[in-house]
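Moderator note: this is an archived Q&A kept for reference. The question asked for a predicted structure of one protein chain; the sequence and the answer are reproduced below.
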Amino acid sequence: MEKNEVRELLPKSCLKAFDDIVEGRSLGASNHIKMISAMYVDIAAENDEVIASEKIRIVGDFFKETRGKSSYAIVLALAKIEAKIEAGSTAYEMRVKAARDAYFNEAEEDLKKLLTYTQRLMAKMSCIMIFDYSSTVEKAVCQADQKLVVYIPESRVINGGYPFVKGIVESGHTVHFIPDASMLSVLDKVDAVFIGAETFYPDGTAFNTIGSDILAELCMLRHVPYYVLTPLIKGDIRARYGIYKEVLTKDLKNELAAQWPEELKERVAFESIELVGVRPECITAYVCEKGILKTSDLFSMICKEEMPC
């Protein structure tokens, strides 16, 4: 179903969240799962069970097919919430709320563990670099026990550095906001680099916004630790069966040439890849709810999901 058709199914209370996800104004898979599950709750509140369940299915399928292409966590999380809804026996609206709450209670416990391990990892650090917005990375930095110097290279393709700034500044850290092209010039000053991930494969390949791969290669060259903070739900088990991520591209005309004359813009191509894979050998470790893991340890941790149809 097309975007506008799905949008018409939603209560008015959901329209802003829907638009923010579709138009890229809201970032982070974890944030999007919260926003989509809130749509489920509002749909259930305004419709009887038969209509609500069909609308939830359509909305869920839409985001699995669109947002899920970049982050498989969207697919897994929505599937888990939907399974909990079906397993319930109370009134439909109550089941939807309970399913949403149960999923996030579990996710919150996993996040607490991840943040604890990250705090221990950061304990002796004084200067770090973070790249491309991740709510998990933001929480980890804001909750650090010591005040840090934080370099944030702007990933201008999605304005992915700016959303970090307010929370980290208000947490008392010293922030340096720099062009992504200048990452190498300050890399020798940092103790480690931290990124989130949209998705990762069982072999340890992490997928994130363009620039993440460049930074990883630079870290390997300069012997700077490169950590990926992510819950295990973002693992894409399909790669084990030969089903790999599509190459996602985007027309960056508005991002790169907003001030160009229109006649010149129309004569230039701005197509670019959106999501890149970071090679496992560039990654020092993953930090997840199971601990601080080498990339070689991931396979046994995530290969417990059933093969998707």
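Archived answer notes: Residues 3-109 form one domain.
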